[in-house]
Structure formats: structure tokens, C-alpha cells
Design brief:
The complex is a heterodimer of chains A (about 200) and B (about 90). In chain A, about 50% of the residues lie in helices and about 10% in strands. Chain A is of the alpha/beta class. Chain B has a domain of about 60 residues. The termini of chain B are far apart. The chains are: A alpha/beta (about 200), B alpha+beta (about 90).
Chain lengths: ~200, ~90
């Protein structure tokens, strides 16, 4: 897909985040945008080079910093995501003309959390999702709409009703071949392929 | 260890086949995201045909519709996960 339709997703890939990531990628696919995730690339090249390539190729970027803090006592916060956000903002600031058109959305769990610990991001588009897939999908849909003046963006209800139907169809049809746990833990790259096939039929 | 590949073209086609709009009387009961209501949405469409204050009322309505056409009701919880399926298919 073209630069205009590519979306770089910088987020956790753990099991707990999976329902949010599925809602996020499905919302983007419904809006005919292409999610770009480092997890879907070959593991042979160095991860940071893959990320730099994504940043160069995507007009839109979504950075979820909700896991960049210790979730339990004595756990260390994860700094990869704020680091990648910095790279992305740097590319928009110091890159060529095309990269200056980049749009960035920062997601967090609770409102204003990040402004307290990373005050330099004030002024960016920041939204909170309360760890709720529906809320996340709505915030992303609204942000895409705000930044796509020439595009007619479907309502959030329409996108989310469709997402739930896909969720049901996916688990029903894969239950013959895979266990419920396997379907839940399916790599996001496979999930995206199933969603694309399904949406092609649904939108006919 | 090589990562297990889930997706195959055959499985993708099977999942996609389920997306086709049909008049088979299948309904989804879902929580609406903007108002605190429960919507009944026919499978393969993007619009609710009716919304209710409680999930119980929505399920009852969907069951009435599905039973007339020997269809199915898929009940989603607040989080969106499938909680229950009620089938009225002819045996």
C-alpha cells in the first residue's frame, strides 16, 4: 500500500494486550488502511532497522504507551515504545517533505497519565482507551476521520458491530482445526490475513 | 523453532465464507458503544434493527426473530467476546 494508507503501530505484543491489538488492526483494515507492525516482519533483520523502515513508509503512526510503566510492583517499565515514538517524531521533524505530513496518535490507558511523566509530548494527539477494545477502536476511528478530510469514515458502531461478527466467525470456523487457546494466541500477522479475507467478502 | 503458521488460503476462505450476508435469520446481540444499550444486529449487516436497555430483553427479541427462520443467536458480552450461542436450526 502507499505511504498515505500505511499505519505504523508501536505497541506491546503480549497476551494481555492482544484484544486491544485485534480491535485496533481490524478498525484500520475496515477503514482500508494497512497496519504495519514490527512483529509481522521477518526476524532475520535487526528490529530497529525494521522500525525505521516502517516509520519511513507510514503516514500515520499509533503509539500505545499504556504498558510503558511497571504494571506490578518490582517490575521494570518498558522503554522501547517511548523510544520508537521519539524516532517517529524525529522523522517528522527532520525528514523530507513527505515525512513532514506524518500524523501521530499516542494512546494511553488513563487520561493525562503520560503528560505527567513525559511532559515533552504535550501538544501531540493523545487519547486514552481504559484498556477497552471498543473505546480504543472509537478513538482511532475518530482520529483517522479528523486527519482524513477527503475521506468518508464509517461510524464507530458500524465498525465495531462488524468487528464482533468477525470475532465470532473466526472462532467458529477455526474451532475445528485449532483449540480456543491457539486461536486466542494466534500471531497478529495471521489474524490480519484472516481479517482481510473476511472483510473482502463482507464488503461485497 | 519455526513459528506455527495458522493462516492458509483454505482456512481464510472458510472464515471469509461466513461473512456473506444472508437471510438465514442469524442475529448478534451486542453492547452498543456510545449509549449504554444492547443492540440486535442481523448477521452480515452493520446496523442494529433494535436496541434495548438490558441484554435480557435484546436476547429475547433476537430469539423470537431467529426461531421463526431456524437461525442462530450469538450473544456477545460487554467486552465483545462470545458468551453464548443459541441455535434454532432444523434437526
Amino acid at each position: 500500500m502507499s505511504f498515505e494508507n500505511n499505519v505504523f503501530i508501536n505497541c506491546p505484543f503480549d497476551k494481555e494486550y492482544s484484544p486491544l491489538l485485534r480491535a485496533l488492526t481490524f478498525t484500520l483494515l475496515y477503514l482500508e488502511l494497512e497496519p504495519n507492525l514490527s512483529q509481522t516482519l521477518s526476524s532475520s533483520s535487526i528490529r530497529i532497522n525494521q522500525i525505521k523502515e516502517h516509520i519511513k513508509q507510514c503516514k500515520f503512526s499509533i503509539h500505545d504507551l499504556s504498558r510503558s510503566k511497571a504494571l506490578v510492583q518490582d517490575e521494570l517499565p518498558r522503554f522501547n515504545m517511548p523510544f520508537e515514538l521519539g524516532l517517529d517524531i524525529g522523522a517528522a521533524e527532520y525528514g523530507g517533505k513527505k515525512l513532514k505530513s506524518k500524523q501521530t496518535l499516542i494512546l494511553e490507558t488513563e487520561r493525562y497519565h503520560y503528560q505527567k511523566v513525559l511532559s515533552d509530548i504535550a501538544g501531540q494527539d493523545i487519547a486514552n482507551h481504559n484498556d477497552d477494545p471498543a473505546k480504543l477502536s472509537e478513538k482511532v476511528r475518530n482520529w483517522i476521520s479528523d486527519n482524513s478530510p477527503d475521506k468518508i469514515v464509517p461510524s464507530h458502531s458500524q465498525i465495531f458491530y462488524t468487528f464482533l461478527q468477525f470475532t465470532s466467525d473466526l472462532s467458529t470456523n477455526l474451532s475445528v482445526t485449532y483449540s480456543e487457546k491457539e486461536v486466542e494466541e494466534m500471531p497478529i500477522g495471521d489474524y490480519i490475513k484472516f481479517a482481510k479475507d473476511w472483510l473482502n467478502e463482507f464488503k461485497v | 523453532m519455526a513459528r506455527k503458521s495458522f493462516y492458509t488460503k483454505k482456512l481464510g476462505a472458510a472464515v471469509a465464507n461466513a461473512a456473506r450476508p444472508e437471510s438465514s435469520g442469524n442475529y448478534h446481540v451486542m453492547s452498543t458503544t456510545l449509549s449504554d444499550k444492547w443492540a440486535v444486529v442481523p448477521k452480515g449487516t452493520v446496523h442494529a434493527i433494535k436496541a434495548f436497555s438490558t441484554q435480557k430483553e435484546a436476547v429475547l427479541f433476537a430469539k423470537q426473530k431467529a426461531s421463526k427462520k431456524h437461525g442462530e443467536v450469538v450473544v456477545h458480552g460487554k467486552s465483545g467476546l462470545v458468551k453464548n450461542k443459541i441455535s434454532y436450526a432444523k434437526k
